[in-house]
Amino acid sequence: MKSALAPTTLGQKHDVLNQYTALKAYNKKQSIEKWLNSWWNIYKLTEQLELPDVQGFRPHYDFVQAIKPISSSFAGALEVDLIRKERKDEPAPSIIDLIKEFKKHYRIQQASLSPPANNSAFATLQGNLNSNSDSSCNSDFNSNSNLRWNKKCICGLIHQFSDCYYIIK
To answer: Any residues with CB less than 8 A from the CB of 51 and at least 6 apart, and which?
Structure first.
């Protein structure tokens, strides 16, 4: 009974090949990390099963095509490197190493795209004015709704430091 229900090698090869084929296109609903981990795991299985689809440079070019929508610059550089290696009859690099490199590249790329933390040296009043400021300064400030400067100067008025007659002589 157990042997009748166990997957055959042919069936396992077919399942793994289907999973590998599905990985050739990145699914945007899945996280990059999870997708790359799947690449790693499925590639290891295809290697163990010695599938012809992952011999030589084939899986490398599959990986290049799969990552192009994510990072065309990395994919382009990798493709050029693969073409050179193949032309010189050098061995194909490890797919696992390429996945690791791409993970590192992707993390760096994402870190550079995220906005930096706000390390502002001055606090803002978020549009609230201090009630004990000079009323003439407040009326000038309120009359110009496009003016965004709302910081109190050390002289007690609300204006830019460069406009202060106490600081600038």
So the answer is: 13, 16, 17, 20
Domain ranges for the chain, please list them: 8-113, 132-169
Local confidence band at 35 (pLDDT 50, 70, 90 cut-offs): very high
Torsion of the alpha carbons at 13, 97, 110 and 22, rounded to the nearest 10:
-10
Give the pLDDT confidence of 94-139 residue by residue, as tens digits: 999 999 999 999 999 888 886 665 555 555 555 444 444 444 444 4
pLDDT reading at 6 higher than 60:
no
End-to-end CA distance of the chain: 97
pTM: 0.62
